[in-house]
Protein: Bifunctional protein FolD
Organism: Synechococcus sp. SB0676_bin_10
Amino acid sequence: MAKRLDGQMLAALYETSLRASVAQHLATAGSPPGLAVVRVGDDPASGVYVRKKAQACGRVGIKSQIIHHPATASQQEVLESIRQLNANPSCDGILLQLPIPATLDARQLLLAVDPDKDVDGLHPLNLGRLVRGEPGLRSCTPAGVMALLAHGGIALEGIRALVIGRSILVGQPMGIMLQQANATVTMAHSRTRNLSDHCRQAELLVAAAGQPGLVGADWVRPGTVVVDVGIHRVPPQRQGTRGRLCGDVRFAAVEPLASHITPVPGGVGPMTVAMLLCNTVQAWQQRCGSGVRTALVPLPR
Ligand code: NAP
C-alpha cells in the first residue's frame, strides 16, 4: 500500500514557518506582507479558491484583499486594477485568479503584473528565470509538488518521470523543475500516442491532464510515485447526498500499487496555496531588503 504524500500536513508546517518569518521581519518592514487577488466574474470554483487563499493569508499574517470585477468588466478596467496594484507599495503580491471570461486577454493581463509581484510565477520573465535555473518567483502548483516530493524523501536524480499535461500553469513548469532536479522527463499531452505505455514505464507519474480518472491501475507499474494534480467536482449521486472531489488518478485502484501517492483532496491543492504564501512572503522580504531571492522558503522539518 502506497505511502500518502500529505499536502494538508506539509502545508500546515509551511504556514507555521511562514507565520514565524512574518513575525520576525514585521518590525523592520513596518507593514505586513500584502497579497491582492484580482477576480473577474463569478466562476463558483474560483470563489472557493479565492476564499481559501484569503483564509490562509490570515493564518500567517499576510494582509489580503480581493478586487472583484463583474464578468462584464473591460480589459482596460482589469488592466487599470493591476497597474494600481503594481504602484501600491503595500501590495507585495498580485494574483490574477484564472479562469477569467473569454472576452478578456489573460496573456496581456498576466504580462502587466510587475514581475517582482508575480506570486503565481506566470509572468514571462519569471518563466524565463525558471527555464534558465535562475532564482525567481516560481509557479505555485509545480513548486508545491516539488516540495511534497522532497519532504517525502523521493530521490529524483535519474528517475524516469512522466508529466501528463503541458499547460503553462502546471505541466510545462513541472517538467522543467523535474528536469532541473535531474529526473529524465517525458512530457505527454492530448496528442501523445500510447499514453498507457508511457505511464507504465514511469517511475514518477505526475497527472495534470484535467481528465477525471484518466490513470487507472493498469497504467501504473508497482512501486511508482504517483502525483495527482487534477481536481474535479463529482456531483452528488443521489438527492440529499453531497458531491465529492476526485483527481486524474483512480485513487482506490492505484493506491495499492504505488509506492507513494497524493490524495485528492489533501495532496497538491493545499501545497499550491502554501507556495502562494511562500512567494508572497518572499516578495515582501525582497521589498524590505531582508530576504534573499531563493526559489523556496526552506522546508520546515
Ligand atoms: P489545461 O490547461 O486544460 O491543460 C491540460 C493539459 O492536459 C493539456 O496540455 C492537454 O494537452 C493535456 N491533456 C488533456 N487531455 C489529455 C489526455 N486525455 N491525455 C493526455 N493529455 C491530456 O489544465 P491545467 O490548468 O494544466 O490543469 C490540469 C488539472 O490540474 C485540472 O484538473 C486543474 O483543475 C488541476 N489543477 C489543480 C491545481 C491544484 O492546486 N491542485 C492547480 C492547477 C490546476 P494539449 O496541450 O494537447 O491540449
In short: The chain has two domains: 30-114, 138-267.
